[in-house]
Structure formats: structure tokens, C-alpha cells
UniProtKB/TrEMBL annotation:
Name recorded for this polypeptide: N-acetylglucosamine-1-phosphotransferase subunit gamma
GO molecular-function terms, A-Z: transferase activity
Signal peptide: none
Keywords: Disulfide bond, Glycoprotein, Golgi apparatus, Secreted, Signal, Transferase
Domain DMAP1-binding stretches: 121-220
Originating gene: Gnptg
Species the sequence originates in: Formicarius rufipectus
InterPro entries tied to this protein: DMAP1-bd, Gtb1-like, Man6P_isomerase_rcpt-bd_dom_sf, MRH_dom, OS9-like_dom
Length: 220
């Protein structure tokens, strides 16, 4: 999945951290997945996926956790895991529990979240989305929208930024919009092309900085 969130956490991508409890070994690979391996000699020892990187949990302008969803099936649903990010001296998986059937909770310690501003959402947004958030703040202050309306706008901002997954209906709507995307003038098309080219350059630089291999698209 595409990495979205605080840029400094990108250095965790491509790494995995394990934790052994009783006969189980848990492995957390940030922005990838969470797995569980039963370390016994039983013929049907369980080994599977507890969740795949899906979205952030956001509360009060702060990234409070990572949701790993759509894991292996468990009765009538899929396994899922919430990973709590807490300040620690080193990167390590510190604690694992199963608060409810097939829903797991992991605590991941890292010095990358020790700074009080390290998990703020606002700085990770584009200028356009920051403006949208600022406008919502003003509307709330002027009592032109309710607290519920404010939260709805913020949810839309986070979905647009890719930090939260939109509902299936919204995804279909977005997809149909993309298909019918047309430009009224050549100038508008050229402007969009330039912006996308700049975005690709930035992404290439970011990938190169972190030594992450990527396949270039010949038609880019």
C-alpha cells in the first residue's frame, strides 16, 4: 500500500519487528502487515495474517494508531489489528493482546514518536486540504456548522488525503470521476501534467533516499 502519514515514519517501511509470547511469534511490518506464527510441533500449527496495512486512526489532530485489516478469515469476519505507537528508546514490538475475538492490539515503541509534534496530522496535508481544514475551523467558530458537521468535513479531508479509507460507495464515486476526467482546455491539461510530473520527481527522490527499489513505468 502507498505510504501516507508523517514522513519521518517512512524509515520504518520495509522493516519487520517480532515479539514472542508463550508459543506464538508475532511479526509487525509497518505499512505492510501483521502475522502470527504458532511455534509448536502440532501438525496444524497456525500461521497466518492478522491484518494488512489499511488506514490510520486519527483523534484530536493526532495519528494515534495504525489499523491493519482484512487478515485471515475468522468465523464470519476477517482478523484485524490496531497498532498503538508509543515513545520508546528503540524500535520494538513491546506488547500483544486480543481484547476481543480476532481483534488484536499491538504496542509498538519507537523514538520516532517521542517529539510532541511527531504525530500531528495537519502538517502532513497539502496546502489545499489545510485550507479546507482552516475553513471548517472558522465555520465552527462562527457557529455556522455543528460539531458533527465539523467532524464530517475533517473525515472528508482525511479520506481525500488517503489517511482514512473511504466507504465503498465513495470509492466507486471517485473511480467514476477519474474515468470521466476531461480538460476543457489544453492549458488545463498541461498544468495538470506538470503537477503530476513534479509529484513523480518528488516520489522518486523519496524512494531513492530510502534505498527502496521501484519499477519505472515506460509510459510515465
Amino acid at each position: 500500500s502507498v505510504f501516507l502519514g508523517p514522513a519521518h515514519l517512512f524509515r520504518l517501511a520495509g522493516k519487520c519487528f517480532s515479539f514472542v509470547e508463550s508459543t506464538y511469534k508475532y511479526e509487525f511490518c509497518p505499512f505492510h502487515n501483521v502475522t502470527q506464527h504458532e511455534q509448536t510441533f502440532r501438525w496444524n500449527a497456525y500461521s497466518g495474517i492478522l491484518g494488512i496495512w489499511h488506514e490510520w486512526e486519527i483523534d484530536n489532530n493526532t495519528f494515534v494508531g495504525m489499523w491493519m485489516r482484512e487478515g485471515d478469515s475468522c468465523e464470519t469476519k476477517s482478523r484485524q489489528t490496531k497498532v498503538h505507537l508509543v515513545c520508546g528508546k528503540s524500535n520494538k514490538l513491546a506488547y500483544v493482546s486480543e481484547p476481543s475475538t480476532c481483534v488484536y492490539s499491538l504496542t509498538f515503541e519507537t523514538p520516532l514518536v517521542c517529539h510532541p509534534h511527531s504525530l500531528l496530522v495537519y502538517p502532513t496535508l497539502t496546502e489545499a486540504l489545510q485550507r479546507k481544514w482552516d475553513e471548517a475551523e472558522q465555520l465552527l467558530y462562527d457557529e455556522l456548522i455543528t460539531d458533527q458537521g465539523y467532524k464530517k468535513i475533517l473525515k472528508e479531508v482525511f479520506e481525500e488525503a488517503g489517511l482514512l479509507k473511504a466507504t465503498e460507495e465513495k470509492e466507486v464515486e471517485k473511480h467514476s470521476k477519474k474515468i470521466s476526467l476531461e480538460f476543457e482546455t489544453v492549458e488545463k491539461c498541461s498544468k495538470e501534467y506538470r503537477q503530476l510530473s513534479e509529484e513523480i520527481k518528488k516520489l522518486k527522490v523519496l524512494l531513492s533516499q530510502h534505498d527502496i527499489a521501484y519499477k519505472a513505468n515506460s509510459g510515465e
